[in-house]
Amino acid sequence: MNTMPDIGSVPAPTHSKSELLAYETECRDALRPLLESLLGMAEAAGWNRRTAASTLMFLAAQHLSAASKTSASGAGPAADRPTASTDHQQGNTT
């Protein structure tokens, strides 16, 4: 079984959500090295880097779509988490 090595931790934001541009920029800066590491791991495993990046974009869009549907139904903060149905659709059965 392959286990995912530790690719680092995500630092906590220093800007509040109300400072939208600074908050989003800080989030990008925090996640960029993790993304680069993940893409490097995928490439080292034999995946094409562009395909891996495209797949991550697809999964992120799918997550946002599921979250917006949940949010629209009035589910609140749980909208930021995948649901059992989206996990099943993505093949996650654990």
Key traits:
globular, single chain
Plain-language structure description:
- The chain is mainly alpha-helical and 94 residues long.
- It has a domain at 14-66.
- Helix content is 59%, strand content 0%.
- The chain has 3 helices and no strands.
- It has helices spanning 20-44, 49-72, 84-89.
- The longest helix has 25 residues, at 20-44.
The run of helices and strands is HHH
User: By helix and strand content, what is the structural category?
Assistant: mainly alpha
Strand content: under 5%
The amount of helix comes to: 55-70%
Distance between the termini: 15 Å
Annotation field: number of helices = 3
Taking all Cα atoms into account, the compactness measure Rg is 16 Å
Unreliable spans: 77-90
Task: Write down the overall mean pLDDT.
Answer: 82
The main sheet comes to: none
Name the overall outline.
globular
Count of DSSP E strands?
0
Biased composition (Low complexity): 68-79
Region (Disordered): 68-94
Biased composition (Polar residues): 83-94
Secondary structure layout plus pairing:
Blueprint: H1 20-44, H2 49-72, H3 84-89
Biased composition (Low complexity): 68-79
Region (Disordered): 68-94
Biased composition (Polar residues): 83-94
Entry summary:
With 94 residues, the chain is an all-alpha fold. 59% of the residues lie in helices and 0% in strands.
